[in-house]
UniProtKB/TrEMBL annotation:
Membrane-spanning parts: 54-74
TOD1/MUCI70 glycosyltransferase-like domain sequence ranges: 146-464
Protein name per the record: TOD1/MUCI70 glycosyltransferase-like domain-containing protein
Pfam families: TOD1_MUCI70 (PF04765)
Length: 474
């Protein structure tokens, strides 16, 4: 009672806002029953509103999820239809086997998101050619007499015979050619019977005479106007090499015409820079890549009196002295054949997949060649094992070789594989080398495989000429 009177007494002294609040509180106490009815009625209304909103949201989420499932299923359906329409019949089990093998030989590396960069490394070449002499015991290799099939005859008058540059060696003849012995083998330049057209790779007699005189040869080629001409860096070539080494660039008339239109015309002696231009008439293959294997592998046939030869691809410029290269890769290692390993791949299984992925050649032809090699004992490259070579895939754009009997035999055998199967020589390298080694355990072939970074240190690498590929390079 006292507190209520005090409140009433002081009510007049309160601010208007406070008086309103207190009056509302007193009224709510006096009408508590009526107030509770209002709260209960409002709670029921709130419950009805909450349930309605929940139902709306649930329906919306269900609709969105249904739309997602419909779009995803339609996408998968269309993708399957497209793949089935454009895919060709393949051996699914074989493809699965190749895919598994690719990951097996990927050394646990994660997939590459971009192209790896490769750099040159230090090469311990001599400072100059002064005092450079071939070691007395260098040519202490296996020696056999090796002759070549120069012509073939028709087996009967009824046969439809067509002469081929590589000849028509049977599988039995092919098998026997892998034995290191005195023999006559197919090695290109196989003429047909009298009256038949040329098998190709015809050269001018003056050019033949020049090549016959070469003791050391550096060669390259451009066919089908597929590249620019890369002149050796003259200031890095010794005067001795300029006087004693033949630098020969093989090309066809189409390439010569293209280069001449760009200002690279041969001088009165037939040279463009240090390159002696040799024109090839009647190319032996429609496939320009396969035609390029003739000077690449058969330098001992084109330069019959040469003791050494160096091959470099047309996309490269020689920036080192050839005699120093021969001393470093052959004399110092006591090898008769030197080639670099591939910069990325070491397994033929991986190389097969890469060629098919980039459509380097007809897939069926690649599969047939690889199946033949597998059935004939081509082993897999095992990084953890002691392999006869550091890689079963070469980077074949740079080859240094002595013209010894086994070097010549290996070159012929490798060329014959390119002639019989695909022109992708990286697919046949390991098979040819390992079969030759397996069939002649007591007659070793001294092949030295050097690092790719050394190749990059001695040559300047360019890109091939852009534009449409010449015929037959697929």
């Amino acid at each position: 009672m006292f507190s209520g009177m005090a409140l009433l007494r002081n009510n007049a002294e309160l601010f208007p806002e406070r008086r309103l609040i207190i009056d509302a509180a007193l009224n709510s106490v006096a009408k508590s029953d009526h107030g509770s009815k209002i709260v209960r009625r409002g709670g029921r209304r709130f419950s009805r509103i909450t349930k309605q909103r929940l139902l709306r949201w649930s329906f919306l989420l269900l609709a969105l999820f249904s739309i997602f499932l419909t779009v995803y299923g339609l996408k998968k359906f269309l993708q399957a239809k497209i793949e089935s329409r454009f895919s060709t019949p393949v051996d699914l089990e074989g493809e699965r086997h190749l895919e598994e093998t690719r990951y097996l030989y990927n050394y646990g590396r994660p997939p590459k998101s971009k192209r790896r960069k490769h750099f040159p490394c230090e090469v311990g070449l001599r400072q100059s050619v002064d005092g450079l002499i071939e070691p007395k015991d260098y040519m202490n290799f296996t020696w056999v007499s090796l002759d070549y099939v120069v012509g073939e005859k028709k087996t009967s008058e009824n046969d439809l015979f067509e002469p081929r540059f590589g000849g028509h060696a049977t599988l039995e003849e092919r098998e026997k050619s892998f034995y290191v012995k005195n023999q006559t083998i197919h090695c290109g330049f196989v003429k047909g019977p009298p009256g038949y057209p040329s098998i190709g790779f015809d050269l001018d007699e003056k050019d033949r005479a020049y090549m016959f005189s070469c003791k050391v040869a550096v060669s390259s080629c451009i066919f089908g106007s597929s590249d620019y001409i890369r002149r050796p860096t003259s200031k890095l070539i010794s005067q001795y090499s300029k006087d004693n080494v033949c630098f020969v660039m093989f090309m066809d008339d189409q390439t010569l015409s293209k280069l001449s239109s760009e200002g690279n015309r041969p001088d009165e002696r037939g040279y463009i820079g240090m390159w002696k231009v040799v024109i090839v008439k009647s190319l032996p293959y429609d496939d320009m890549r396969r035609t390029g294997k003739v000077p690449k592998f058969l330098s001992h046939r084109l330069f019959p009196n040469s003791r050494y030869s160096i091959w470099l691809d047309s996309k490269m410029r020689l920036t080192s002295d050839p005699m120093l290269i021969i001393e470093y890769f052959l004399w110092r290692t006591k090898a008769e054949y030197a080639i670099s390993n591939h910069y990325d791949r070491h397994s033929v299984w991986e190389e097969v997949l890469q060629n098919k992925r980039l459509n380097k050649y007809n897939h069926t032809a690649i599969d047939e060649q690889f199946s033949f090699y597998e059935s004939d004992g081509l082993p897999r490259f095992e990084p953890s094992n002691e392999n006869p070579l550091p890689s079963y895939v070469p980077e074949g754009s740079f080859i240094v070789r002595a013209h010894t009997p086994l070097s010549n035999l290996f070159s012929c055998l490798w060329f014959n594989e390119v002639d019989r199967f695909t022109s992708r020589d990286q697919l046949s390298f390991a098979y040819t080398y390992l079969k030759l080694r397996r069939m002649n355990p007591d007659k070793p072939f001294h092949l030295y495989m050097f690092k790719d970074c050394e190749r990059r240190a001695l040559l300047k690498l360019f890109r091939h000429r852009t534009g449409p590929s010449p015929p037959g390079t697929a």
